[in-house]
Design goal:
11 strands; five-stranded parallel sheet; disordered N terminus; Rossmann fold
Length: 385
């Protein structure tokens, strides 16, 4: 559907759902103000427009600055409570017919084939080292949770392998992985869905979670303790024992959660920007696991490294750095991911570059301490040899 074929009603409705980026491009001089304004307006949801759509829309805005300024003034007044929340009456606007732009949205007509692309390759499983928890493998917990349709919460420091464990499990079970990354700007529309323009006016486009729960998959809610409290109600629904999701913003329809969908959430406790889960949300998780830096797993990872002496010296340094952090000598920790990165840097570049990247991951005031520990462990000698 070309822009010139949009009715006035369709176009003014589209304005209410246009992306922050597209609108800000129309008012470059007011971009910070526009961004702040739209973030406060609950009835505007960021639509995912492709480059051609955005170019055509921006051109339309530039061709009609008076009308667009009137619309912007209206939503500013609306935000201040000067006028009632309504769609302003914007006159029909001339369109540059040479623009090859469209508001047409990709419809998930081949959802299954698209989800198939989200199945992690088998390499994720081949490289993964399972951890044991009270005699059970991490995959055992995922199997049971999936069979009983119970969500899992995994907490632990960054880089401890929380997300990687789900990707490895997904590769094993050939399941697509869909992730919601929580932060202050995560929207309900991105999670559940939103209305977007199409040939027929407006169509509903499912959000990440709505897509995931309708078929065998893994839905990962990343850093759930960083999400805004206004999203708590949607987490309650997705993780509840009733096993369904009501699409209030669509038509009130009910989506039953597929029995093959594994719902999981991760959290990094006590990090900047996080907050404790309230009791109601915490109680939704029937299994709560702690993933720390697992020494057994890490020793399995380094066992396959070619230069045995180098990696043993390096892991000795890792142990000393962690002890120093534990006793307050350092603030920065070394994660399991950092260990993997070091080994990969040695293979891709050389040991000197790997060591430089490793030291540079610490704050400047900590680097001398790490270097001294490295000398004590003999790692610096191995690096310079």
């Amino acid at each position: 559907m070309r822009l010139k074929n949009l009715t006035q009603e369709q176009f003014t409705s589209a304005l209410k759902r246009i992306s922050v980026v597209a609108l800000a491009e129309c008012f470059n001089r007011q971009r910070p103000a526009v961004d702040r304004l739209i973030r406060k307006m609950p009835h505007i949801s960021p639509a995912r427009m492709n480059k051609t759509d955005r170019k055509a829309f921006v051109q339309r805005m530039k061709n009609n600055p008076t009308e667009m300024e009137a619309w912007l003034k209206h939503i500013v007044d609306e935000d201040k409570g000067v006028v009632k929340p309504t769609i302003p009456n914007i006159p029909e606007m001339p369109i540059d017919n040479s623009l090859d732009g469209s508001f047409e949205v990709d419809v998930d007509a081949h959802l299954e084939s698209e989800l198939a692309k989200l199945i992690p390759p088998i390499e994720y499983l081949n490289k993964y080292k399972n951890r044991k928890i009270n005699g059970f493998s991490d995959f055992d917990f995922y199997d049971i949770a999936r069979k009983n349709q119970k969500p899992i919460l995994i907490s632990g420091p960054t880089g401890s392998g929380k997300t990687m464990s789900f990707w490895a499990y997904a590769a094993k079970e050939k399941l697509p992985v869909l992730s919601v990354n929580c932060h202050g700007m995560t929207t309900l529309e991105a999670i559940v869905g939103t209305w977007q323009p199409s040939n027929e006016g407006f169509i509903w486009r499912d959000g990440i979670a709505t897509k995931a729960i309708q078929q065998p998959s893994i839905l990962i809610i990343e850093e759930i303790n960083m999400s805004d409290e206004t999203l708590s109600s949607i987490w309650y629904s997705l993780l509840d024992d009733r096993q369904n999701l009501v699409l209030d913003t669509k038509d009130g329809s009910v989506i039953n959660i597929h029995p093959g969908c594994l719902r999981v959430a991760t959290m990094n406790p006590n990090y900047l920007g996080t907050h404790p889960l309230n009791q109601a949300l915490s109680n939704r998780f029937k299994q709560k696991l702690e993933y720390g830096y697992d020494v057994t797993v890490e020793k399995k990872l380094i066992k396959d490294f070619d230069d045995t002496e180098l990696i043993e010296c390096y892991y000795g340094l890792v142990t000393d750095v962690r002890d120093a952090k534990k006793h307050g000598g350092l603030e920065t920790d070394i994660s399991t991911r950092d260990i993997i990165d070091f080994m990969e840097d040695v293979k891709v570049f050389n040991k000197e570059t790997a060591y430089t990247n490793f030291v540079n991951s610490f704050d400047e005031e900590e680097r001398d301490i790490v270097d001294q520990l490295s000398v004590a462990k003999g790692l610096k000698t191995k690096i310079n040899a």
